Amino acid sequence: MRALRFHQFGGLDSLKIETLPDPQPKPDDVVVSIRAASLNPSDAKNVLGRMEGTTLPRTPGRDFAGVVVNGPRQMIGAEVWGTGGDVGFTRDGAYAELLVVPANGVRTKPKSLSFEEAAAVGTNFVTAWIGLIETAHFQSGETVLVTGAAGGVGSAVTQIAKWKRGRTIGVDRAPMSPRHQAEYGIDHFLLSDSQENYKSMVDGALQFTSASGVNVAFDCVGGPLFEPSLRTLGQLGRQVNITSVGDRRVCFDLLDFYHRRLSLYGVDSRAYDTVACAAILEQLTPGFESGALKPIPIVKRFTLADAVQAFTQVNDGSLHGKAVLTFQ
Fold this sequence. Notes:
The chain folds into 2 domains: 2-121 and 295-326, Quinone Oxidoreductase, Chain A, domain 1; 124-269, Quinone Oxidoreductase, Chain A, domain 1 (Alpha-Beta Complex), CATH 3.90.180. The two termini are 13 Å apart. It is 29% helix and 25% strand. Helix 1 (41-47) packs across helix 10 (307-315), helix 3 packs across helix 4 and helix 3 packs across helix 9. The strands form 3 sheets. Strands 3, 4, 5, 6, 7, 14 and 15 form a 7-stranded mixed sheet that branches. Strands 10-9-8-11-12-13 form a 6-stranded parallel sheet, sandwiched between helices. The chain is of the alpha/beta class.
């Protein structure tokens, strides 16, 4: 089989296509013929040596969709999807013609999604689910404020919140059209393109909630938006952080924090392997089947031969939407 490999950390040009023996499954494994695999910023950072715990040499790629071609007899021919914080880091990933993973590390792909669309779901929606549902315990009728709402994880959070019958405030540095707001399930949109607008973001959230504050702040940006996000919370509010753009050190008013009895959570989807992520994808499936949830739009398709170009565009942020590698 052909696979995209890297043997050392460094520039993206270290990625090379190699021919490897077809993987042989253990009794509890499946071999998936990959039809599509999406690219995430973390995949590029992995090659650049900016992710912890990766063992070399390695085939990168977290999110995939394909057909089972080897493994338990009852699974042969099944159209599946999957993702995991181990895939592409401590086990070979999805940027290959064949991938071996635990049999309970995949789930049947929603029939409503193409292979490309299914591959575009993984990391973004799993991270959103872990933070919003499993960690912050978001409930029907609650309000969530999401920074970076136009991004992959941010737009997944607002969609899941609407699916769970909540209210949503989307925050981003660039204006978002009413059409995109509707597609992402955003009830109210606020700008965060300047320090002046950081205050407006807090004021806007309080106005939208009749001064009670939001129940959950899901901060996909961090850095300068960390403290403003915290200030939008009402009593017993919960804030989730998944990254920090720019300065990784933040500060906040500790007295205000405990007087409002707030909770702060850090979420890292890398801690969830293929088996844990498959269980989350199973819970997300009804949302995709009903049309309440929609994958991030795919803006560009690449082949293995275009991999360096694909990684470069994902890493430098020039692609606004999902990029996928396609097979067959």
